[in-house]
Amino acid sequence: MKLGQEPPKIWHQVSEDKYNRFNLQINRLLLLEKIWDKVLGSKAKFWQIDSVQKGTIFVKVKVVAARQELLLNKENIIKELNKYFQRAWIKEISII
């Protein structure tokens, strides 16, 4: 490129769609991390989020009794967590 020459168009184009999707995912995960403790209260210390993939939260359970409680209450937990998002994106809680 010569001095004073206009740069190629590709330099001016930013793929904002990819950035916005990535930014949305990061924001969702940060929000989920914050509301997990708020929604679950004292029970959150027994359940730790390991990962989130395609609307499924994978949770590590520290105590066997807490595992049963999570299985019994997971539908209510999913509803409570989805209240904090514009669109419900949490579909399942899976125990690992």
Structure description:
With 96 residues, the protein is α+β, with helices and mostly antiparallel strands. The chain is built from two helices and three strands, in the order αββαβ. It has helices at 16-40, 64-82; strands spanning 47-53, 56-61, 92-95. It has a three-stranded mixed sheet with strand order 1-2-3, covered by helices on one side. β2, α2 and β3 form a beta-alpha-beta unit.
> What radius of gyration results from the CA coordinates?
20 Å
- The secondary-structure class comes to alpha+beta
**Alpha-carbon distance between the termini?**
55 Å
Q: What general form does the structure show?
A: elongated
Q: Regions with pLDDT < 50 over 5+ consecutive residues?
A: none
Instruction: Compute the number of strand runs.
Output: 3
Helicity, in percent?
40-55%
How is the largest sheet built, in terms of strand order? 1-2-3
Largest sheet: 3 strands, mixed
Chain-averaged pLDDT: 85
The percent range for strand residues is 15-25%
Number of helices, counting only DSSP H or I runs of 4 residues or more: 2
Name the descriptors.
about 100 residues; three-stranded mixed beta sheet; elongated
